[in-house]
Amino acid sequence: MTLPAEFSFIGRHFRPLSGPGALDLTDDAAVLTPPAGRSLVVAVDAMVEGLHFLPDDPARTIGRKLLRCNLSDLAAMGAAPLGYLLTVSRPPGGDDAWFAAFAAGLADDQATFGLTLLGGDTTSTTGPLVLSLTILGHVAPGQALLRGGARPGDDVWVTGTIGDGAIGLRVLRDGWPDRDGFFADRYRVPRPRLGLALAGIATAAMDISDGLVQDAGHIARASGVGIDIDADRVPRTDRAPEHLELCLTGGDDYELLLTAPRTQAEALRAACHACDVPVTRIGQCVAGRSDVRVWDKAGRPLLFARPGWTHLPDDV
Amino acid sequence: MTLPAEFSFIGRHFRPLSGPGALDLTDDAAVLTPPAGRSLVVAVDAMVEGLHFLPDDPARTIGRKLLRCNLSDLAAMGAAPLGYLLTVSRPPGGDDAWFAAFAAGLADDQATFGLTLLGGDTTSTTGPLVLSLTILGHVAPGQALLRGGARPGDDVWVTGTIGDGAIGLRVLRDGWPDRDGFFADRYRVPRPRLGLALAGIATAAMDISDGLVQDAGHIARASGVGIDIDADRVPRTDRAPEHLELCLTGGDDYELLLTAPRTQAEALRAACHACDVPVTRIGQCVAGRSDVRVWDKAGRPLLFARPGWTHLPDDV
Questions:
Q1: B4-139 in CATH: which number?
Q2: What is the ipTM of this complex?
Q3: B59-77 and B96-113 are packed helices; what angle lies between their axes, rounded to 10 degrees?
Q4: Which of B79, B133, B209, B261 is the 20 to 30 Å CA partner of B51?
């Protein structure tokens, strides 16, 4: 149900974000024609104040993070963005300036990534602000990068650096030092790795949102391979030995985790470098297991305190 | 961010709802190929506990209502369903049996309407339960029914009966009498009017969710026509004169409001009756205004207490 106050709210903040097919956000649904002969890729993410962002995080980066997390899901599938829908459930007494900044951040990123708002819904809630964003993208049929295609012998790769976002959260939440705001920025404004031409090169892909080790477990289980990671090879901005575990198990990287046969190593590097995206080989897929093991330079296994890194509990 | 507990929750309740393209809800996004040569139709609705449904509403009908409200948006565009995505932000200590019943209701309606779950996200929240559902549908290019096509002289039609849902809410909330549960059921389980072959017949369409008079205002403004409604012609299950205003301005009908030239009257009736959907002519579009006026049998204007029925406030 849309209340009159919502029409004005939508018109003020969100109509300027709407693009072709959105019908000015005034019809029952959006209508768009996807590029001919392409498959559709769709994902949705929700964010809750106090859980996924902090009440004093700048409004301008919150919408950007939500949009970029979804764009990162498209990147993980090798898909290109088409548009998005947004729902906002806001507590009473909301600050209009907050939403103006929130929308301004979205406008910035729409321009950066070439997509527009297709539709949405706004409601009130008695609880904290809840946002959800559905993203639509497209990919050539049969060319989506899935999690289940890794094979024994494949190399394991990551883009960018791992652990910056987790350190950024500590900076913002616990006052860790961050001289130039680098880590805070990495936490607040992830960089979706869109546009890499990895079809036919990578055998599996996903974006790292919940921590490298846990997320590698998804590829391991989906593909039925073991994954061995050389801790020392994992590219980290902060190489402090005491932060190793945090970087390998903390979330909010939004880098890509990729597997590819050794014969594709140069092609994979070239595809990433064509987009100025650093990529690093960090390990290998092995037969006979479907878990993740992390090894130090001396070949000893590293065991992390965080539970669930080699398997998921049956229930919690 | 997906926590281990969420994997189990998703697997238990939502994986059984997933269909082709959903990749078992274990990949970064869903991949689907829309029917060739069709346009895509997308909409999203959010529902919040305590606002859109009551804490003691049966869980089995809550998911169905959310899905059906979205299907009603597709119906209003003349589109057919393709699939949906769901986000659940749930308070701590949630009752697993509640979600089992919620998912069972969705399973029932998936079978009824021929669609499956494509993807989703679950998070926690410290506030009330927040649900959002994104629906995808398809329509022949250029044949989506929009709100802006009504022309002076067009007749105004509604499907089904108007006001049942508003009375149902009074039954459930205020203890109004409801001998056989008819009105409560109409509130809880709306009937999306999918499948009506109205392209080329109706000039404008929308679904009535916020009350006939307010929603007619959307067509009036989008089309630049005045809409005159004969109160006495509006089909109502409860014809009690004292409930007229409630029925015409209350929400939760999820019937279609249609306009069509007089020459299409028989075609419109035939298209609705082919789907066993009652349809009734309730008024006319006129030139020179873009508001909604309701008239009694004696030709006197009916003015309702509820604000905003002829225009929206500039701001609230």
A1: 3.30.1330.10
A2: 0.92
A3: 30
A4: B79
